[in-house]
Amino acid sequence: MHPMVKPALRRAWRSLQCVQFGITPAHAVVMSPVDTATGALLGLLDGTRGTELLRAEARALGLPDGHLEAFLGRLAAAGLLADASTGRPGRAGPGAGAVDEALDPLRADLASLSVVHREPDRAIRTLGARRALRVQVRGAGRVGATVAALLSAAGVGTVEVLDSGRVEPWETAPGGLPAEAVGERRATAARRLVGRWARGATRAGPAGGAVGAGGPGERRGEPGLSLVVVTPRDGLGAYVPDPLPAEPWISTGTPHLYAGVLEATGTVGPLVLPGGTACARCLQEELTDREPVRPRLLAQWRSGAPHPLPACDPALATAVAGLTAAHALAFLDGDLPASTGARWEVSLPLLEWRAERLRPHPACPCGAARGGEGERASAAGSAQDTMAG
After folding, report:
1. Which one, of 278, 280, 277, lies nearest residue 248 by Cα?
2. Cα dihedral sign, 315-321-323-326
3. What is the pLDDT of residues 116-131, one digit of tens each?
4. Separation of alpha carbons 335 and 312, rounded Å
5. The whole model's pTM is what?
């Protein structure tokens, strides 16, 4: 082992014997007391020395036998220790030794994961696990294309994009489909975009598999998917999800996350864990209970062709896509993000995010109302099992 203090956390001394690692309250750690000799030892934990050499350095500083191990234990317990021999979670300073250049495209991701996860080798293991995952993004508009590119850039091994038709000029955006893709088949343009950012084997789905279009993916359970991200181009299927396309995911236990922009309002969530959290049909039943005319409205909104020109601001779409990808990655890495069984919504021009907890409906056959939190925990465990595999 080559111990190192996680370099992603900035270090500052609050006093002569009190050191703070990190700035932001979510991840900052204060350690005290740290005497002068231990502080000097702390400066040597840059990943360039193995434990034997560090023991010699500790003796040279006048520290007793066993002090190094005890100090490393304190750092590990505080979530501050990384092992440089398994890949550096961030670039170290001059003279810190060679780094694995193959990790360079994901260096910032690795640093971020090292802050989020306490275990010394968890960051590199999480990145490795992402390569085995398969995610399907349904819809290649401004939100969906950007989500797919972000997931690919974050190291997800296989990112499929299902959509049909050809790219329209108003569907291009920075971070999403480029201007030169106008007129090209959406599946082809999405495949190229995702491949450009791929850190593993990544592909786009076939044309004709559009969200809400009854494509091949709508008619079967698609086993082996780690997550489905539903990002319809016109946003309606994210704001009021249609239960019918979700039936195969419910029956196969496939987690799915809705996101989109509809009429200058962006939504992220819910993340549906089948049998554990409210699904699209739960949401529809709940809305009908509140407003009996809702089925009549839904029938009109969903009838006919998709809206030809959605009101989708590029900045709002990018914000929604970024938050969606972050929630998806949190789930894929084994956590339950705030969109689990909830929907986050934001509207122009004030852009104030608000959250709504969605309750499983007792009349829904998905069983979430009967399963409760036990099913949610089980679904989270499945995500972690997928990651570990």
Report:
1. 280
2. negative
3. 999 988 999 999 999 9
4. 30
5. 0.86
